[in-house]
Design a protein that fits this description.
Layout: H1 4-10, H2 17-25, H3 48-56, H4 64-71, H5 75-81, H6 83-90, E1 99-102, E2 111-115, E3 121-125, E4 132-135, H7 136-153, H8 158-179, H9 184-189, H10 194-199, H11 203-218, H12 221-228, E5 229-232, E6 235-238, E7 245-247, H13 255-268, H14 271-277, E8 280-288, E9 299-306, E10 314-321, H15 328-331, H16 339-350, E11 359-362, E12 369-374, H17 389-410, H18 413-420, H19 425-456
Antiparallel strand pairs: 1-4, 2-3, 5-6, 7-8, 8-9, 9-10, 10-12, 11-12
Helix pairs in contact: 2-18, 5-7, 5-19, 7-8, 7-17, 7-19, 8-17, 8-18, 8-19
Length: 458
């Protein structure tokens, strides 16, 4: 069967580059670039807590308090978990109508380092739970709002916060314009390796990035095995650490369902990756709590051993529930009947380098949709909350660069570039939007904490 979403994403833009650039520029009267500054929480705005409570209905009930506790820690933690809240807010903002394969949750903590199949350390987007075809503006606004929220939480002056966001918006605009001139194959081959990132930084910042890279290289599948598993009675298994890690026997899920889910994952792999997967055998399964916004969705970790050295050739795969994108109510159905496949296809379109184990599956009994990936594969990132103003600005520029590339790969960079132009009008508008959204997010966080504390006293 033909996948309508995949066809829509991959369909080449119509018209010459000159015609498409002019068409993008012609969008400005209807959607002024300065108009992207406009947003305020109106009287008919949905209650953020009620949005989160509706999400909680489909989640593991005993894990929802953990999600809320993590979101209550800070304004940025709340923002990370409140993608659905921002989706509803973004739906009220102006858009040009140019669509891309949106990340859907492009905040600054969802960019980082990981290993490519060639074992090169690359910097890219690393979270795709919400990916769907949608407005390019929404990704830019979520990224820039996250930068302002981090800067605000760090106590940076308003002028410095605005400068951080302006730099990111400018980076996006200039990178899109650059990518609009690239040959198609060059764009699809483009990767941002860590050595390139380091070379572009002032010398005073290079040591911290090298340190992040070294940590990322150590955070691989062997470290996952060492941290999460133990040997009991001569058999390696996951450590029991409820409620964060709960072994299969205590979850109410049967082994037959696990084996059926694994077989469906195997069937969806390409032949060469299926042959690779067949070299491993399943040792143990556990339920694991991950992230902030994802807490409460079903997430499993599966321990596998290779055939030649089963005591040391070990990997951990993450099997994570995929629910509909938070953007779907506002952009329409994704076109994928399987949410796990939506995540996998979106990731493959957006990311310059992918995980060889990436795939999708579903559970035979419950019918829930999942996607599969390695738990850690040289995974790491800088901590935005530990960066000074200059580091945060440069990090934001890097994230915006990666976002521009993902949009150029899956949308019409020429048309977007024609709309944005060479002036800084868009940069200033996004800075104003991010400032307003950060203030609203702080108020949302305070109200959320009050509700959570009131619930805990009952």
């Amino acid at each position: 069967m033909t996948d309508p979403m995949a066809d829509e994403v991959l369909e080449p833009p119509e018209g010459s580059a000159e015609e498409r650039w002019a068409a993008g520029r012609a969008l400005r009267p209807a959607t002024p670039r300065s108009g992207h500054a406009d947003w305020s929480p109106g009287p008919d705005r949905p209650d953020p807590f009620e949005i989160l409570e509706r999400q909680a209905v489909s989640r593991v009930p005993e894990l929802v308090p953990i999600r809320y506790a993590r979101m209550a820690e800070s304004p940025f933690a709340f923002f990370r978990g409140a993608a659905a809240v921002m989706a509803a807010d973004l739906a009220t903002t102006p858009v040009t109508g140019i669509r891309v394969q949106a990340c859907g949750d492009a905040h600054v903590d969802n960019f980082g380092l990981f290993a490519s199949p060639e074992r090169k350390l690359v910097f890219d987007i690393n979270d795709f739970d919400e990916t769907i075809r949608g407005p390019w503006e929404w990704d830019v606004k979520r990224l820039c709002a996250s930068l302002h929220i981090v800067a605000r939480q760090r106590g940076f002056p308003r002028a410095a916060r605005d400068a951080v966001v302006r730099a990111a918006a400018c980076s996006y605009r200039e990178r899109v314009a650059d990518y609009a001139t690239w040959r198609e194959l060059d764009l699809w081959y483009e990767r941002t390796e860590i050595k390139t990132v380091i070379e572009r930084l002032p010398k005073r910042h290079r040591s911290s990035v090298r340190r992040d890279a070294a940590r990322a290289r150590r955070k691989d599948h062997l470290r996952a095995v060492g941290k999460l598993t133990e040997v009991v009675g001569g058999r390696r298994r996951f450590r029991d650490d409820p409620p964060l890690i709960v072994r299969l026997a205590d979850t109410g899920v049967g082994l037959d369902d696990v084996l059926g889910t694994a077989e469906r994952y195997r069937a969806n792999l390409t032949e060469e990756r299926r042959a690779m997967f067949d070299r491993f055998r399943l040792l143990d399964v556990a339920q694991k709590v991950v992230g902030v916004g994802s807490v409460g969705t079903r997430c499993w970790v599966a321990l596998f051993a290779g055939t030649n050295d089963p005591d040391h050739d070990l990997i951990v795969l993450q099997v994570k529930e995929a629910q509909p994108s938070v953007l779907e109510p506002f952009v329409g159905p994704s076109g994928h009947p399987h949410e796990g496949r939506r995540v996998v296809v979106g990731q493959r379109l957006i990311q310059a380098a992918g995980d060889v184990f990436l795939g999708w599956t579903d559970a035979p009994t419950s019918g829930r949709h999942y996607y599969v990936r390695q738990l850690w594969d040289a995974k790491g990132q800088g901590d935005p909350m530990a960066m000074d103003v200059d580091q945060l600005r440069r990090h934001g520029e890097l994230c915006a660069w990666i976002l521009a590339r993902s949009h150029a790969r899956t949308g019409d960079a020429v048309r977007i570039a024609g709309y944005l132009g060479g002036a800084t009008t868009f940069d200033g508008a996004i800075a104003a939007f991010a400032r307003r959204y950060a203030i609203a997010n702080e108020a949302d966080h305070a109200a959320f904490r009050e509700r959570v504390e009131a619930m805990s006293r009952r």
